[in-house]
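Progress note, sequence design subtask.
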């Protein structure tokens, strides 16, 4: 029996060892196969999206006239959310036989490409045209399938339709609620070329061009002019091209954005992008409950006040052009648009933004004016919904005669007994600017994942310094508290307020770990000279609340 056992082991041992060797050989072969696939310049596809890497990138550029490349990271949440829309856009472009194709590069593994094209965050989209590798164009469209398709279509074909006769232009104007037509006497001139370039960037508008003299006459024009045609409010708004300055595309873009909106907008899921894309510096908001007929009637005075705040009129060369363009009577566009009037239904889409204003539905009807640059909000001492009262209030804010209305939560009873002191708007000044203390404050949003990730480190830091009389570790929820002279644009934001006179403030921009925090504090609000530490790639601070109702 013993000998049989020995012989069995002798026979089976090599066989078992052989299986291990076979598995190792298979694994090695699979690894080599994968390496060969990566080294090949073959271009594979996933959901109509070209999969690119260092060895097939050049081939893709040579084979495709227009190639929009997404540089992504597999772990990036923004990239994961974009993926379905990107694939859908790729399919649509392919189905219409467009010369434009979409591709993607995993920038976490293809580091050479990421370095070559300066990829520092995810996703980053760049357009490569005619095989040009050295000057890709940054993607500026919306991050959804429709936005991507339209952006690529504009670059694959003419950005504006040539309109050659009265029937064609009339049909073009009638085809949509809003169109833009550039009237140029020379379509090869500088002004017309600038117009074409601008049209390529403005994905959400439809553009046409005309040069026939009879079309100038038909629409009451005598010189190069860009016209906005709408089926609401003013039917035709003219933007004359200044002969001396030429066509200022940035200025014209702002004007088109502003005047493409209705005089009074309703804040909805569909209109929110339009409202903020217009970049109008002030928003006047009427909060109301649309189920109440009495509150709905307040819109009349609100609308009557809106007309006076489209902007300050500035005519070319200082001449009055009113009535100079024939019939239909157009409005010559003012510059710049100053105040956008928006109605917010507190029981509809607007319910989600009420916390941004520190309000509940029960506060309606009420008025607020928001300065978009810094999110400052202004409130009447007592709501008055007449058009004259609204105009007076807005002008007072514009003239700097009204102080902003600042949100502040109530301080918790134990706000100063825990290692991390809890600040609110009402208590911030007395704590942060205490001349006997060095105060390190974290401004955060409860929903921000980066804030949540550093919470343990902040608590540990506070525990380390809890017995130091001269150092205070604090935090403030910036979604519920506002400060007059400090605007928080992203989360988390860390500010250090050193002891002593002068109300100094130092922003902390280094690594978010206990040891670096401690080194910063021990050095009096500075760090030893070191190479700058950037954010984790693809994870910049969470953005602050979007200006105005989009909050």
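Output:
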């Amino acid at each position: 029996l013993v000998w049989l056992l020995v012989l069995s082991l002798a026979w089976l041992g090599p066989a078992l060892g052989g299986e291990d060797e076979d598995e190792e050989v298979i694994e090695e072969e699979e690894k080599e196969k994968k390496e060969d696939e990566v080294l090949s310049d073959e271009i594979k596809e996933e959901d109509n999206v070209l999969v690119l890497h260092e060895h097939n990138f050049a081939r893709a550029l040579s084979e495709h006239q227009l190639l929009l490349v997404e540089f992504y990271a597999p772990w990036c949440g923004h990239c994961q959310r974009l993926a379905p829309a990107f694939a859908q856009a790729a399919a649509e472009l392919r189905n219409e036989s467009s010369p434009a194709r979409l591709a993607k590069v995993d920038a976490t593994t293809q580091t050479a490409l990421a370095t070559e094209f300066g990829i520092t965050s995810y996703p980053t989209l760049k357009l490569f045209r005619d095989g040009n590798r050295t000057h890709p164009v940054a993607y500026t469209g919306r991050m959804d399938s429709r936005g991507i398709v339209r952006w690529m279509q504009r670059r694959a074909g003419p950005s504006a339709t040539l309109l050659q006769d009265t029937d064609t232009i009339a049909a073009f104007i009638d085809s949509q609620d809003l169109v833009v037509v550039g009237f140029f006497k020379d379509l090869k001139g500088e002004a017309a070329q600038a117009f074409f370039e601008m049209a390529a960037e403005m994905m959400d508008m439809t553009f046409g061009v005309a040069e026939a003299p009879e079309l100038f006459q038909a629409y009451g024009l005598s010189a190069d002019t860009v016209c906005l045609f709408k089926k609401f409010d003013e039917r035709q708004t003219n933007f004359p091209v200044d002969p001396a300055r030429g066509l200022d595309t940035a200025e014209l873009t702002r004007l088109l954005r502003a005047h493409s909106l209705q005089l009074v907008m309703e804040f909805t899921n569909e209109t929110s992008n339009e409202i903020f894309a217009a970049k109008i510096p002030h928003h006047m908001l009427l909060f109301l409950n649309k189920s109440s007929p009495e509150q709905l009637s307040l819109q009349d005075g609100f609308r009557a006040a809106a007309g006076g705040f489209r902007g300050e009129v500035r005519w070319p060369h200082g001449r009055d052009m009113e009535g100079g363009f024939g019939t239909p009577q157009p409005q010559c566009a003012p510059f710049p648009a100053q105040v956008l009037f928006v109605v917010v239904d507190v029981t509809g889409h607007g319910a989600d933004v009420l916390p941004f204003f520190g309000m509940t539905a029960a506060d309606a009807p009420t008025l607020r004016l928001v300065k978009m640059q810094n999110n400052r909000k202004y409130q009447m001492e007592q709501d008055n919904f007449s058009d004259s009262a609204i105009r007076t209030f807005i002008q007072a804010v514009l003239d700097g005669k009204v102080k902003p209305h600042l949100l502040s939560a109530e301080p918790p009873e134990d706000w100063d007994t825990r290692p991390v002191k809890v600040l609110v708007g009402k208590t911030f000044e007395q704590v942060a600017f205490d001349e006997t203390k060095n105060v390190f404050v974290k401004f955060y949003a409860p929903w921000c994942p980066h804030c949540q990730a550093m919470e343990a480190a902040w608590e540990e830091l506070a525990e380390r310094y809890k017995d130091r009389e001269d150092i205070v570790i604090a935090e403030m929820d910036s979604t519920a508290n506002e400060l007059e002279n400090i605007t928080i644009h992203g989360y988390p934001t860390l500010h250090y307020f050193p002891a002593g006179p002068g109300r100094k403030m130092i922003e902390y921009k280094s690594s978010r770990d206990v040891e670096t925090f401690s080194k910063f504090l021990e050095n009096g609000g500075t760090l030893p000279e070191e190479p700058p530490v950037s954010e984790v790639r693809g994870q910049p601070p969470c953005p602050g609340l979007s200006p105005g109702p989009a909050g």
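The CA atoms of residues 72 and 513 lie 26 Å apart. Work on this subtask will continue into the next period as scheduled.
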